[in-house]
C-alpha cells in the first residue's frame, strides 16, 4: 500500500499532456513528425489521444501489458503486441506513468528503437524514459481521474471531534 496519494484531475491531466506534447513536438525523428504513437494500455490511452491531437498524429497503435492488480505489481504479461510499429523507429511509446519500470521495460523490449514518453515519472523508472513532465516520489500512488469520482468529504474540524 502506498504511503501517499496524489489525485490528478481531468483538467490537470489535460494540462500535463499538453506540456508533454510541447516537449515532443520537435523531438520526432530528424526533428520532424512522429510516424505514430504506441499507447501502453490502459493508462496511456487518454494521454495518447491528447498528445496525438497536439502533434497532429493520426496513427495510433497500442500495446497491452498487464502488470498491476489494484496496487500490487506482478509479472508483466503482453496480451496485445504493437504489430504496426515494427521495432519502434520513429514511433513514440507513451504511458501515463512509469513507476518501477516493469511495464516499460517489457514494452521497450518490443519496441527498442521507440522514443519513450510518460506524463509522470517515479525515480525507479525515470532512467527508462526519454521525455516526461512531472516527477513524483516513489512512495506516492497517483489517483488518475478514471480511477476516482468526486464525493463528499467531511470538514477537517469534524474529524477532530472523533
From TrEMBL:
Binding site for Mg(2+): 96
GO MF: magnesium ion binding; xanthine phosphoribosyltransferase activity
First-tier enzyme category under EC: transferase
Cofactor(s) the protein requires to work: Mg(2+)
Annotated positions binding 5-phospho-alpha-D-ribose 1-diphosphate: 42-43, 95-103
Protein residues bound to GMP: 99-103, 141-142
Keyword Cytoplasm: no
InterPro entries per UniProt: PRTase-like (IPR029057), PRTase_dom (IPR000836), Xanthine_Guanine_PRibTrfase (IPR023747)
Gene Ontology biological process terms in this record: GMP salvage; purine ribonucleoside salvage; XMP salvage
Gene Ontology CC, one term: plasma membrane
Catalytic activity: GMP + diphosphate = guanine + 5-phospho-alpha-D-ribose 1-diphosphate; IMP + diphosphate = hypoxanthine + 5-phospho-alpha-D-ribose 1-diphosphate; XMP + diphosphate = xanthine + 5-phospho-alpha-D-ribose 1-diphosphate
Compartment(s) of residence: Cell membrane
EC number assigned by the record: 2.4.2.22
Pathway entry: Purine metabolism; GMP biosynthesis via salvage pathway; GMP from guanine: step 1/1; Purine metabolism; XMP biosynthesis via salvage pathway; XMP from xanthine: step 1/1
Top-level taxon of the source organism: Bacteria
KW Glycosyltransferase (keyword) present: yes
Segments forming a coiled coil: none
Family annotation (CDD domains): PRTases_typeI (cd06223)
Cited function: Purine salvage pathway enzyme that catalyzes the transfer of the ribosyl-5-phosphate group from 5-phospho-alpha-D-ribose 1-diphosphate (PRPP) to the N9 position of the 6-oxopurines guanine and xanthine to form the corresponding ribonucleotides GMP (guanosine 5'-monophosphate) and XMP (xanthosine 5'-monophosphate), with the release of PPi. To a lesser extent, also acts on hypoxanthine.
Family: Belongs to the purine/pyrimidine phosphoribosyltransferase family. XGPT subfamily.
Quaternary data: Homotetramer.
Database matches in PANTHER family: XANTHINE PHOSPHORIBOSYLTRANSFERASE (PTHR39563), XANTHINE-GUANINE PHOSPHORIBOSYLTRANSFERASE (PTHR39563:SF1)
Full protein name: Xanthine-guanine phosphoribosyltransferase
Species name: Roseomonas acroporae
Gene from which this protein is expressed: gpt
